Amino acid sequence: MTIKLFGTAFILLLIGSSIGWGLKALQVKTNPSNHSFTAPISKTTPYVVSIYTYKKNQHTKPLKNEHQAESLDSLGSGVIIKNGYILTNKHLISNTDKVIVVLNNQQRITSKLVGSDSATDLAVLQIPHEDSPKHPIETSNNIQVGDIVLAIGSPYGLKKSVTMGIISALSRSNIGLNHYENFIQTDAAINPGNSGGALINNNGELIGINSAIFSNTGGSQGIGFAIPIADALYVMHEIIKYGKIERGYLGIKTEAITPEIAQSLALPINKGLLISKVDNMSPAQEAGIQIGDIIVKINDMEILTPKDAQSLITKLPIMSKISVIGIRGNQSYQANITIERFQEMGHSSQYY
């Protein structure tokens, strides 16, 4: 009888211990306050730099020392991607005479501007290869609304500051910040000085470059925007290779057709792109494309969203020809159009 009771007690003890450990594991998984982000932060901070820009001062009197020759113009952040190349925001380094990069180990280096892109507000800086981490930073395009994210940068000059939040929305556009907008929206606190810094996931992988905040006061109000890393890397590679980015231009503005829109406008189909505007003297206008037309395919590819169409058109080689399958009224048509170079100063940001 004693042996049986001991066995029963032992089994109950094991069951109780298993339940206890299970509850603890569940608590750690579901309660962020019990989870440390030390690992992903430590993994990423060596790649995040502070950026200081300086302008030359205009003096009529002799200078007492060399420090009077220039003054601090702005500060922000940047991310070393690989081989000494740094991604940051263009607005940080525009109209400056010198850009100083401060590394994680506090080393100060005068950087070289490789190139910039106004349409996405991105710039590429370069420091000596030996001063950057040995391996490229890890990146990820696998993101979803609700994912936990961390923003790392130098808000108000406070180096290596980290804030936490979630992805609030994806593919945000029509914000009025850049010509090409495909923002990650996050509620992680982003303040002045965070621009150009890293937005990472909880694995320490870079998912975006922090770019802007929506604020009435200049401080964080829970709405920040980051450029997806895939878009940023495309810009960086083009700048490194060519020194600039040349984008294709068709000259249309479109809206995605939904079943509700199709029904309200009595459209013949319930998917595709409805042309809402055609730019004057654009390739689309010269090819006879009209407001109210529906684009179904471009180069035999079904196009369902303006984002997909813009991504396709802007990456096409200049002077290449495309085939557009469209519908006007109840009649389908095909148009062959020559893609032109997008002139940043010559066309409204609503067209692609």
Automatic annotation (TrEMBL):
UniProt keyword terms in alphabetical order: Hydrolase, Protease
Residues covered by the PDZ domain: 239-313
SMART domains, alphabetized: PDZ (SM00228)
The keyword Nucleotide-binding belongs to this UniProt entry's keyword annotation: no
InterPro entries in alphabetical order: Chloro_Bact_Ser_Proteases (IPR051201), PDZ (IPR001478), PDZ_6 (IPR041489), PDZ_sf (IPR036034), Peptidase_S1_PA (IPR009003), Peptidase_S1C (IPR001940)
PANTHER family: PEPTIDASE S12, PROTEASE DO-LIKE 8, CHLOROPLASTIC
The protein's name: Trypsin-like peptidase domain-containing protein
